[in-house]
From TrEMBL, chain B:
It holds the Pfam family DUF3823_C. Residues 29-119, 124-228 form the DUF3823 domain. The lineage of its organism: Bacteria, Pseudomonadati, Bacteroidota, Sphingobacteriia, Sphingobacteriales. InterPro entries: DUF3823_C, DUF3823_N. It comes from Pedobacter cryoconitis. This is DUF3823 domain-containing protein.
Amino acid sequence: MMKKIYTVFTFTALLFMGACKKDSAFLDVPPKQIIPEEVAFSDPALALSVLGDLYNRQLDFSSLDGDGWRSFVDFSEAFPSENGSYNIVQRTGWGYGEWGIWDYGYIRDMNLFIKRATAATKLTEADKARFIAEARFLRANFYFEMAKRMGGIPLITEPMQYDYSGNVTNLQVPRSKESEVYDFVISEAEAIKNILPKDVNQKSRASKGAALAMEARAALYAGSIAKYGFKTPQVTLPGAEVGIPAGLAGGYYQKALAAAQEIINGQAGGYQLYKVLPDLSENFAAVFLDKSSVNQESIFIEDFKVNSAKVHGFTTNNQPFSISDEGLDAGRLNPSLNLVQAFEKLDNTYAPIATKDGQGNPVYYTNQLDAFAGRDARLAGTILLPNGAFKGKNVDVWAGYQLADGSILTSDDASHLAKLPGTDVAVQVVGKDGPVNGQEFRSQTGFYIRKYLDPQVGSGRRGRQSDVAFIRYRYAEVLLNAAEAAFELGMGGIADGYINQVRARAGLTRAIQGVTFDQIVHERRVELVFEGHTLYDMKRWRLAHIVWDGSKMSVSQLVSDIGLSTKKNTQPYGLWPYKYYNPGNPNHGKWLFKEVLPTAVTGANMFQMGNYYSTIGDDVLSANPKIVKQPNQ
Amino acid sequence: MKLKPIYILLFFLPVFSCKKDNYKELSTTLKGRILYNNEEIGLEYDRVPMEFYQMGFGKKGAITASFAQDGSYSVLFSDGNYKVIIPNGQGPFKWHQNAAGVNDTLTLTVNGSQTLDLQAIPYYLIRNAVYKVSGADLTATFRVDQIITGNTAKKIERVNLYVNKTQFVSGADNIANSELSGGAITDPTALTLKVNVPAIVPVQNYVFARIGVKIEGLEDMVFSPLQKIQL
């Protein structure tokens, strides 16, 4: 009995104790999934993780992760060897909406970060200042990215708040002038450059060098839009939302030169060109592979790390077929002959790859690589040529046997053997790495990409993938920006000095004297190809509609006018090597080459006036009547 | 045979799918051509856009259409009041413009299918095109007439003769073309262009040809009517 009372009593007591918990204590449980604002901004590590998300959402035209390789194969600089991607070379132009972005969600997140970090009380002043400066850098860089595609856009630097009044007109911001967006990018860079660390080894976070490099590039873009805008009078708006008045060109070029010179003079740290390896081609390839502190060329990068979630499959997608780590996954990105022949000879002259002599007879080479000898070292550093080496093996690229009677002996795959005339044994008659028309994952132009291709063991496997960094800003581009700005300002001597530094690193020892506009255009093409510059360079010089004019190219058009800034470039050609089979002939066993247009290439790139600035979506126009349409919209 | 329940279910299927839709299907066709005094203004396929706005529904985007090679268009939509425009800077012609020189809008009431021809003034027209075949050579003689003169006149950048094996003939779609630059034209009333028609695989004994004029400062070329030519 006593025992029973005791038990009941205990339970009752427990009941009351539980029930007596205050409601507020019971209901106000801090959420476990969400870190509240005041907590996030109380600890530098937490604040940095928020900032890390903002870094991750930066946008580049080209990137290495995901389907990033596809952005490299456009503009006739390369051919896509994947059945699903032939549309890139079959279409006759780009939609007016292509490349457009309008991501004010991201802008708002950056504005919120700046506001909250400014209000934070528990962070040290030094941490706070750096975080805010980094967020301002990311915001300016993103506005720059949007301006390149859309022209003038609404400049919003405060997180906007809806007041539930039913009236949204105070949230409807009109487009700024295109020049005002560039002014914003430049002034932000000036404002934050001395808050950011002056540290060469700070590459994946913003540094003083990154801010200045962004400023130089933005000012250069604005200057050239102002200077060359007269070529496209159709691409302007009365309110200057698109287009920059010609009178502003000089000022922008001066700012570009000053910002670039600040880096060159060492005021942002000891950046310099990468000159480590004795072989200049190896050295150029290593610029993009070396992530150690030896590499003082890269300024701001998108970094990746193996065994983390941030890796990319660029090497998996684009490694040579026969050297692939992943069986059938390989060879999508095939640089074009158009690009290969743009690399000049060591005596500073331009020439196509010699395939025929003066009489129209084929030129025979003992080794395939001989055809590309005596050229700019960046050629072999950017492009994996036929018989070029990767991971200790040589690429096997040849299209078949050229027989003495003029016919060709080949097959549709390296494993399908055939008998040569006068022999009984079937032999391999086409390269393991192509080229065969329409055979995906193998080169169809005769070339593979080398830039960014990771030589690490296992880098081509889908499981491991690669962690080669994507370089957003690097010192060589800063030099070229400075050279171009100086050239446009009439300071030819200074321009020569900068451009010759870049060229000397590439093995071109004959210095240019009196650099021309064509040479600047050409130098940027060969130095910076596949780094996301091609489209914007052509746009800001207003060359895009001339270079990609929508008409097909003949071989004679292909091999002439190399090095001219207005050279047509509408279809990606290939260069196919053949082995000469004619026993007894002195040329037996040697190589000859033929210019070939891959059969998948049926379209010709046409850049229309409406492509200079991407269309603004109907959703944006409906939501904000103050937004002016693009000139061709 | 006894029906399984699953088959009985199938009988209900058409009943549900016959449920009335909320919206009427689009059944009204508006079609027509863009003309200059009843003369064809030849265009490149799918290059020159036209926009139809119907006010009062959702977002304010346009229904866009584009002209075919012979300047014809055809749009399927529902009855109502529309505003039609050809955006600024499009087409090798001048469309109705207001005092400020900006392309003007045309209001339009659609009630049942109808044909509406639009009028525009091209900068140039190609007339009297005559094609002659001799072996693999195709020679075209024609005249280029300037329609818009005075302050707003524009110069000829180049004249092209395009040949293709299909009916789509333009700068982007051709198997052969020849070019005459604007500066080389002395007498625009008597022009001749010649192309060598390459061998076509599989063999085909006819080609299609058009002459195009590229006008300075304008993106879209104006073309002569399409001609089928027996080789």
